[in-house]
Design brief:
Strand order of the largest sheet: 1-2
Organism: Streptomyces pseudovenezuelae
Number of helices: 24
Subcellular location: Cell membrane
Family: Belongs to the glycosyltransferase 87 family.
Membrane topology: Multi-pass membrane protein
Number of strands: 2
Order of helices and strands: HHHHHHHHHHHHHHHHHHHHHHHHEE
Shape: globular
Strand content: under 5%
Number of domains: 2
Protein name: Membrane protein
């Protein structure tokens, strides 16, 4: 007779949503490895769980990303400014080892630098990450040897972050672990993973999303506060969460999340704020004073204008655009026919910040990849967006190659780079449009079409609405008075409607 564990594993496996059964692109792509996985293929081989497969694939793709940087590791970082762009293998990490004082043993935020940047211009937790990597870097050999080691040490630490992200995303939607393959196989993820230190904040944010999906509001807040101490963008997730908790009346859980985030952020930042205020404030000064830079539509405007806008004006306009985006997302949240999923709104708010910001570094795509997978696990749309991001990844390096190769003009001229920026912007807007469509027409949402409500929503999953605006507040009479706790909505999922008529 089968054991209780094998019976439970069988039931769990039969309940798992497989992309190859509901996604045409995933089904076609699976032909490369022998076709869709059979329902009983993994039973009896319990070690090869979906989460472990996703983690191993993510590590494998990360390793391919390291190989892609090999031309720079073998000399382009040190012996030629142009070749690190023509080979598309640039990374900030080796350059900042010496440029931010780690090679000289300077303490971030406390010791002043000798160059144009007076202090390290990164948030505190990222600075700690960089400092720990410098401790693990051998101090012997030439500066080039040390910079190579520093990049390798950071790459090892960032690979752990990449595995954490893949595992957290695979576990956030309990019935959809195979969606984690979108993260693991994302080409832009592998190409940009070791350009900078963004994966630390992304990993903490992914872990926070996992905690929220399990109903652990305080743990979510703590992890999100730590993520915000590593990069600014995670704090934006509190906005959509506030709106969703307002619509569902989950104020206690939002309060725990907000309190946990504030305390965690303060625990990390207060000591540095107290003992090294000028060093701590450098990140915020730099963000405010930095001019229009690569990747933004502001750069296209500036480079095509005889009288470009000042930095202060761009800061004001970018802030206004973000606020307008927030108003739009709030209206969408409170008037949608069915309460949006947390991951959908998280993606939209971070995408709005990226699209309106005055700079878009190629590694910023890492912020969006996990949220995109949770928001719309649709292979076609995800790959279209990824193709646009890979095009931008190549475009920026070819443009920098053009500007640093002198009279040789190797690479992409300014007009060509503007087209690369446009491709990135349009690709992100396209994915945003698909997410908005899913919110307005929940029967089109691939997650809800498979029978779930909000797997990443935690206490919001299946909760009743207590505050709704617009037509959604007055559903058809047969829906408002349906006898039973839930009512079918469209062709997929269920929606509680007890309070929708209020």
């Amino acid at each position: 007779m089968p054991s209780a564990e094998s019976t439970q594993a069988s039931e769990h496996e039969s309940d798992t949503v497989r992309p190859t059964t509901e996604d045409e692109v995933a089904r076609s792509g699976s032909e490369l490895i022998g076709g869709p996985l059979g329902r009983r293929a993994l039973l009896g081989t319990s070690w090869w769980t979906p989460v472990r497969v996703v983690a191993l694939v993510a590590i494998g793709m990360f390793a391919l990303g390291l190989i892609q940087k090999a031309p720079c590791y073998n000399g382009a970082w040190f012996f030629g400014a142009s070749s690190q762009y023509t080979k598309a293998c640039y990374s900030d990490i080796p350059h900042l080892y010496q440029g931010r004082g780690f090679a000289d043993g300077l303490v971030p935020y406390f010791d002043k630098l000798s160059g144009d940047m007076p202090y390290l211009e990164y948030p505190v937790l990222t600075g700690v990450f960089m400092e720990v990597a410098s401790w693990l870097t051998p101090g012997s050999g030439t500066i080039q040897d040390q910079e190579q080691w520093y990049w390798m040490v950071n790459a090892g630490m960032l690979m752990v972050c990449a595995a954490v992200i893949a595992v957290c995303v695979a576990r956030t939607h309990r019935r959809r672990p195979w969606d984690g393959l979108l993260i693991a196989l994302a080409p832009a993820f592998a190409l940009t993973a070791t350009i900078n230190w963004d994966l630390l904040a992304v990993a903490l944010t992914a872990a926070a999303m996992l905690m929220w999906s399990r109903g652990r509001s305080l743990a979510f807040g703590v992890l999100l506060g730590l993520a915000t101490a590593a990069k600014l963008y995670p704090v934006f997730l509190l906005g959509p969460l506030f709106l969703l908790c307002w619509r569902a009346g989950k104020w206690r859980d939002f309060g725990k999340a907000l309190g946990g985030a504030a305390v965690a952020w303060l625990v990390v930042n207060l000591p540095v704020m107290y003992f090294a205020w000028d060093g701590w404030a450098q990140f915020y000064r730099f963000s405010q004073e930095r001019g229009v830079d690569f990747g933004s539509f502001w750069l296209i405007m500036a480079q095509n204008s005889s009288d470009p806008l000042s930095t202060d004006t761009v800061n004001t306009l970018a802030t206004l655009l973000v606020l307008l985006s927030c108003v739009g997302i709030a209206a969408l949240t409170l008037t949608a026919p069915r309460r949006p999923r947390f991951a959908q709104l998280a993606f939209l708010i971070v995408a709005a910040f990226i699209l309106t910001n005055k700079v878009y570094s190629p590694q910023y795509v890492l912020w969006l990849v996990p949220l995109a997978v949770l928001a719309r696990p649709k292979w076609r749309d995800f790959l279209i967006w990824q193709a646009c991001e890979v095009a931008y990844f190549l475009g920026i390096w070819m443009y920098l190659a053009y500007t640093t190769s002198g009279d040789a003009h190797k690479g992409l001229p300014q007009d060509g780079y503007h087209w690369a920026i446009a491709v990135h912007l349009l690709g992100t807007l396209y994915f945003c449009g698909m997410v908005v469509r899913d919110i307005l027409m929940p029967e089109r949402d691939p997650v809800r079409r498979s029978g779930d409500d909000d797997p990443s929503g935690g206490v919001l999953d299946g909760a009743e609405d207590v505050f709704v605006l617009g037509p959604a507040a007055h559903p058809p009479r047969h829906a408002a008075y349906f006898e039973g706790p839930q009512v079918e909505w469209g062709s997929g999922g269920t929606e509680s409607s007890t309070d929708r008529s209020l």
